[in-house]
Amino acid sequence: MPVLTKEFYLETEGETHIINITDYVQRIIKDCGLKDGIVCLFVPGSTGALTTIEYEPGLLKDLPRALEKIAPREAYYEHEKMWHDGNGHSHVRASIIGPCLTIPFVNGNLTLGTWQQIVFLELDVRARRRRIIVQIVGD
Predict the structure, then answer these.
(1) Maximum separation of any 2 CA atoms in the chain, in Å
(2) Helix axis angle, 88-97 relative to 57-70, nearest 10°?
């Protein structure tokens, strides 16, 4: 069973930027020529995250608002003692959501639900250039 590794880059606008990457991933799967398998996505770094969401205007506001309740920006974080970079909440949020996501594909198509898209969440306080690693296993 072949294992293929690809990558792509995103330019983010900083904290709370949510980017729909579904088309990038689907294109990579189509181009690899495999029919059925799994695709694993990974973002190197400790302040970015990957998940799925219904990519619509309401949820693009609701998700950052929920994250603010879970790990408030203005709360005290021990991380600040060491680095003084203002992103302790970013690290906590990214740890909760996670840096990777695995999705099956069948007949060359992601098996996402009707309203489900793959998204990258920029949780750092500044704009970043992010690398997304895509590893595909299948036949």
Answers:
(1) 51
(2) 110
Return the structure tokens found at 64: 């950052």
- Give CA 134 to chain center in angstroms: 11
- Cα–Cα distance measured from residue 134 to residue 40, given in angstroms and rounded to the nearest whole number: 6
Show the tokens assigned to 22: 């579904």
**Helix residue ranges per DSSP H, the chain:** 22-32, 57-70, 79-83, 88-97
Q: Which CATH superfamily, name and number, covers 3-138?
A: YjbQ-like (2.60.120.460)
Q: Which of 43, 139, 55 is nearest to 98 (CA)?
A: 43
Name the CA dihedral angle for 118, 124, 87, 95, rounded to a multiple of 10 degrees.
20
Answer positive or negative: Cα dihedral of 88, 20, 63, 40. negative
**78-106 residue pLDDT tens:** 999 899 999 999 999 999 999 999 999 99
- CB count within 10 Å of CB 42 equals 18
Pick the closest to residue 90 from 124, 119, 63, 65 (CA basis). 124
Three-state SS for 58?
Answer: helix
Residue 1 has pLDDT above 90, yes or no: no
